[in-house]
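Practice record 12: protein with acetoacetyl-coenzyme A.
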Amino acid sequence: TDGYETILVERTGRTALLTLNRPKALNALNLRLMNEVVAATEALDRDPECGCIVLTGSAKAFAAGADIKEMQPQDYPEMYLSDWFAAWDRLGRLRTPTIAAVAGYALGGGCELAMLCDVLLAADTAVFGQPEIKLGVLPGIGGSQRLTRAVGKAKAMEMCLTGRTMDAVEAERAGLVSRVVPADELRAEALAVAGTIAGMSRPVAMMVKEAVNRSFETTLAEGVHFERRLFHAAFALADQKEGMTAFVDKRPPRFTHR
Ligand code: CAA
């Protein structure tokens, strides 16, 4: 409907489901797909009726990496001048909470795309890795940084240096994913989590996302200070009045998302 060729976008209530759709290439992330994901998610981010975005792939592959066939002929001037992959950074700047629902391969750019999302849910079939070194390159969409923050130096170094993969159980144990669910329940579970988030106050969900993300960028004292400022600011919201009044009145809140 939106002229997208490599993704599908569906809306249910206040949640959006974006499915990567290049099955023949195991959802390899070519430039077209990158631009479509960024355009679609930025449009959803501007929509006040959208409270959470789920990104998913197929049963076999969330995404098997950046498109190797597209990169293979490139040279340094082309990569540098076009700022190859730079658009992916915009995904990390969305204000709407995002969920990666990962089944099958999440390799290279696929693992990096999953880590760009706020919540990472894995099917028991999920396989994570940064195998770029086997292609004579290194992670290029933040994997060396985000994997290290997620699982620590020892595991990140080993994975990036050898290209070995992690299964879902190891990924959960290492803190890369929040939960592992049976593959046939992944989509429903991700949409349920998205529905829960989308039912919260939209500005407060944005504040939570900002506050948690700030922890990666700053000192503890500054981060706590930032959180406190946001906490006080929440009292300017209609949703704070509603949320606390509903608790006192022993009824569910009816957030206006303002
Ligand atoms: N780029 C382009 N095409 C890809 C691809 C990729 N990353 N991954 C898979 N494909 C294509 C294959 O070439 C194949 O196409 P053809 O049918 O035209 O030959 C099709 O998808 C199916 O793949 P396979 O036949 O290889 O499927 P398999 O089940 O035998 O193996 C796999 C699955 C182990 C994931 C294997 O496809 C694989 O190793 N893929 C590459 C993984 C990888 O190296 N990812 C990192 C890419 S570099 C990167 O991402 C840089 C960065 O940091 C951003």
